[in-house]
Amino acid sequence: MADDLPILNLSNPLHKRLLVNHVKGLEGVHRVNISKVRAQRTLSQNAYLHGVVFTLAAKGFCEAWGGDWNMDRAKTVLKDEFLRFPVVNQNTGEVHAWETRSTADLNIEECSRFIEQCIEYCQDKLGVPVPPANEYEQQVA
After folding, report:
1. Which domains, ranges and CATH numbers included, belong to the chain?
2. Which of 17, 53, 117, 137 is the most buried (most CB within 10 A)?
3. Residue 114 — pLDDT band, cuts 50, 70, 90?
4. Does residue 15 register a pLDDT over 90?
5. Cβ of 46: how many Cβ atoms within 10 Å?
6. Quick check: helix, strand or coil at residue 63?
7. What count of Cα atoms within 13 Å lies in the side-chain half-sphere of residue 22?
8. Kind of pairing between the strands at 95-100 and 84-88
9. Distance, CA of 130 to CA of 50 (rounded, Å)
10. Given this model, what pLDDT does residue 56 score?
């Protein structure tokens, strides 16, 4: 749905003028939502996260907690730990549920922070050292 919406560069005077002219012509009640388009996580962030961090986390969970662990299960636990947020009733303020963000929805900065949190978790809670991304990139190259 959001992918169907036009993207305007409001630094471009023509785009800005188009938007202003459109808004001037509106009548009645409208909901307006303008949000900045941010760059999604990079392919190298995604490769490092899945190829190194989640894989090592799975081994760490297996050693620390026992049981069967794979990359997907480790990913789910780490997402629930760091990317979970409350679903709040806007009328009462009551928390009714929890939702976990997809890593695909993270921008570059958010993904970097998530990677840092996962690395710290692996090292502090599971005793698993995670090599820095530059070492991983050198191995892949």
Report:
1. 43-140 (1.10.3790.10)
2. 53
3. very high
4. no
5. 15
6. helix
7. 9
8. antiparallel
9. 12
10. 97
Three-state secondary structure call for residue 132:
coil
Q: How far apart are CA 90 and CA 88, in angstroms?
A: 6
C-alpha 80: how far from chain center: 12
Higher-confidence residue: 141 or 48? 48
- Nearest CA to 72 out of 56, 53, 54, 51 is that of 54
Q: Is the pTM of this model over 0.90?
A: no
Q: What is the pLDDT of residue 5?
A: 61
Name the packing angle between helices 108-125 and 54-65 (round to 10°).
30
Q: List strand residue ranges (DSSP E) for 1-141, in order.
A: 84-88, 95-100
CA distances (Å), 51 to each of 5, 48, 57, 130, 131, in order? Answer: 33, 5, 11, 11, 11
Per-residue CA distances from 24 to 17, 27, 28, 120 (Å): 10, 8, 12, 51
Q: Strand pairing partners for 86?
A: 98
